[in-house]
Design a protein that fits this description.
It is a single chain. By secondary structure, the chain is of the alpha/beta class. It is 41% helix and 21% strand. The chain has a 7-stranded mixed sheet, sandwiched between helices. Mean pLDDT is 87; it is low at 1-32. The structure holds S-adenosylmethionine (SAM). S-adenosylmethionine binds next to helix 2 and helix 4.
Length: 230
């Protein structure tokens, strides 16, 4: 049952109608109608994405996310780190500067092109079907889970790619005013996203074979989480 009624039949509204069901354990999910995939959306914005991330108030908020995630990840020289859902390489570039070896993956070929121009090792992959036949000391997953239809599958795949004494660091948007604003922003171009409750993401991590070690909230609308293989 839709809990919001809008007078217009625009694409985002159709997605919104199907979306506000809240019948998934992890928060708001809309699974029936979508008009653009995450891949298409990020292909469209890839060239300007770095600018979008770092300008204005968004840039300040990204800075707070960055401080938390980089502290939790704590990359070290010689480590191997997978940046899953790397976007335009915001984190991968910093990880590389720590001396760690970073592999970037993203579902968007245009994002991967941008990352390669930075001289980073980058490949197109969907984390929901990831199978690299290798393990990493650490995995960073900042922002793609919101776009996954099968977030459990994505986390299970990352579990298979992290070493037994390593860990995963992830950020997810929670159900909050800013989270909803982000949700509406994506609905407006027909992209479906999921917002997570702390219980929802913790349950998914547990089911995927992780124990949550640290949860931080660097900004009100975001959970920054470190989780280790059980
Ligand atoms: C919000 S952006 C964050 C990018 C980057 N991690 C950052 O923090 O700047 C989410 C990224 O996840 C990617 N993504 C979405 N779904 C994905 C999937 N199933 N597999 C891999 N990447 C995905 C998108 O293409 C996009 O680049």
């Amino acid at each position: 049952m839709s809990i919001i009624s809008l007078p217009f039949q625009y694409p985002g509204y159709l997605a919104l109608q199907s979306g506000l069901k809240g019948d998934e354990p992890s928060g708001f999910v809309h699974n029936e109608v979508f008009l653009m995939s995450a891949r298409e959306h990020y292909d469209r914005v890839a060239k300007k994405y770095s600018r979008m991330l770092t300008s204005g108030i968004g840039g300040q908020l990204k800075g707070r996310e960055k401080d938390a995630l980089m502290r939790l990840l704590s990359p070290k020289s010689g480590e191997t780190i997978l940046d899953a859902g790397c976007g335009s390489g915001f984190y991968a570039d910093m990880i590389r500067k720590s001396g760690a070896q970073v592999l970037c993956i993203d579902i968007s070929p245009a994002m991967i092109e941008v990352v390669r121009t930075l001289g980073l090792d980058a490949q197109v992959h969907d984390i929901q079907s990831l199978n690299l036949d290798m393990r990493f000391d650490k995995i960073l997953c900042a922002g793609p889970l919101e776009f996954c239809k099968q977030p459990l599958k994505a986390l299970q795949n990352m579990r298979r790619h992290v070493s037994e004494d390593g860990y995963i660091v992830l950020s997810v948007l929670n159900i909050s005013m800013m989270g909803l604003a982000y949700w509406f922003y994506h609905v407006s171009h027909g992209v479906k996203i999921t917002l997570y409750t702390l219980n929802g993401i913790t349950n998914l991590l547990n089911q995927a074979g992780f124990d949550v070690e640290i949860v931080e909230r660097p900004v009100s609308f975001l959970f920054a989480i470190r989780a280790r293989p059980k």
